[in-house]
Amino acid sequence: MTATHEFNFGGEFIRFAIERTSRRKTVAISVGFDGVRVLAPSDLDDARVIEIVRKKGPWVLRKQAGYRELGGVPIDREFVSGETYHYLGRPYRLRIVPDADAVISRIVARGSMLIAPVLPDMQALIQRSAVRSALRHWYRDKAKKHFPERARIMAETLGVRRPPIHVVDQSKRWGSCDARGHIRLNWRLVMAPVSLIDYVIAHETCHILEHNHSRRFWRALETIMPDYEGRLRKLDRLGHKFIW
Questions:
Q1: Is the entire prediction scored with pTM above 0.90?
Q2: Which CATH number fits the domain 84-242, given the four candidates 3.30.10.20, 1.10.1040.10, 1.10.10.10, 3.30.2010.10?
Q3: Cα-Cα end-to-end distance for the chain
């Protein structure tokens, strides 16, 4: 049995569904592109569950903000010939090619195609898994080569030291900057146009100067990228295309 509830938390509404199960002893809260889901024991009344969710309100809002940053619901992928993938904003058509010598599928870019060699007669589920893994490997490799150079340019423009760049797999954020000035960038960002990659890197580089979103932070970002608001809006529109 599923019930839906909502409450106002600091001016923002948190809407969630409560799913009852006799297998749980505690309340579990998850946040995803499809909203907030709450699993609760069958014998725990709604008022107590809502109280628990309310106490986790700041955490829920942070998670929801992270998913909004990625711009909508991800596109379902089948990892089959004919699908379109992007690299630096350019579209590439995936082509699966049977190859008796393919031990591990390796992606090769040829013109506007991404070629994925696979063993002949491979089962469909195994083939999709192999192609997905190969694409992730290919994109991460490209990101590790591309991101540091763009970060160097942004750092020089801002007048700060060149930050260490870490290419990571994170499903809710494009980038982050820690207290040491280390920047972490989502490998999926390499699918976006260069102007949007530069926006994320510029944003995180400005956090080397200011670790919050203060007036000083936004002034620094505007100084090196006067059109950052337009780039952010475009990333919001396109971001979901790069999530899989």
A1: no
A2: 3.30.2010.10
A3: 30
